[in-house]
From TrEMBL:
Residues 78-147 form the YetF C-terminal domain. InterPro entries: DUF421, UPF0702_alpha/beta_dom_sf. It comes from Glutamicibacter halophytocola. The chain crosses the membrane at residues 55-75. Gene3D superfamilies: bsu07140 like domains. It is found in: Cell membrane. One of its GO terms (cellular component) is plasma membrane. Belongs to the UPF0702 family. It is a multi-pass membrane protein. Its main location: membrane. Keywords: Cell membrane, Membrane, Transmembrane, Transmembrane helix. This is DUF421 domain-containing protein.
Length: 149
């Protein structure tokens, strides 16, 4: 039973860490961040199972994590308010060509990164952007003035 409790606590902490890391980092991880998350998983495993190196202990920890993940997915699907709390809401970064610098700062997105993503979407200047939305997945959706017509 101790492994189940440790796995549940680790699950909650990992969920909080990934939420705190910001949406843009979840969208595309750098090599360093990927390695960091893999190492973090290994460190958490040691804390969950402690000295228990048995197959039963490992499977119990994995099963607990899977049940909690499935439970969160079900809650997100069943109750939309829970989904918004867990996954977050889309955030408007640009509206009618005006960049919301507060939103960029809050989400830890630099203006240079936003410019690069806009260029990759074929947008030359912010004036042509009707709406740019940071999705809960970490991706940014751009809607131009031409797309409105």
């Amino acid at each position: 039973m101790e492994i189940v409790i440790r796995a549940a606590v680790a699950f909650i902490i990992l969920w909080l860490v990934t939420r705190a890391s910001g949406r843009s980092t979840l969208g595309e991880l750098s090599s360093f961040e990927l390695i960091l998350f893999v190492v973090l998983g290994d460190l958490v495993q040691q804390g969950i199972t402690m000295e228990d190196r048995s197959l039963t202990g490992s499977l119990l920890a994995v099963f607990t994590m899977l049940v909690l993940a499935a439970g969160l997915n079900y809650a997100n699907m069943r109750w939309p308010k829970v989904g918004k709390l867990m996954q977050g809401r889309p955030i408007v970064l640009i509206r009618d060509g005006v960049v919301d610098r507060k939103a960029l700062h809050k989400e830890r997105i630099g203006l240079d990164e936003l410019s690069m993503l806009a260029r990759q979407s074929g947008i030359e200047n912010y004036g042509s952007v009707r709406l740019a939305i940071l999705e809960a997945s970490g991706k940014i959706s751009f809607f131009t003035q031409e797309a409105k017509a």
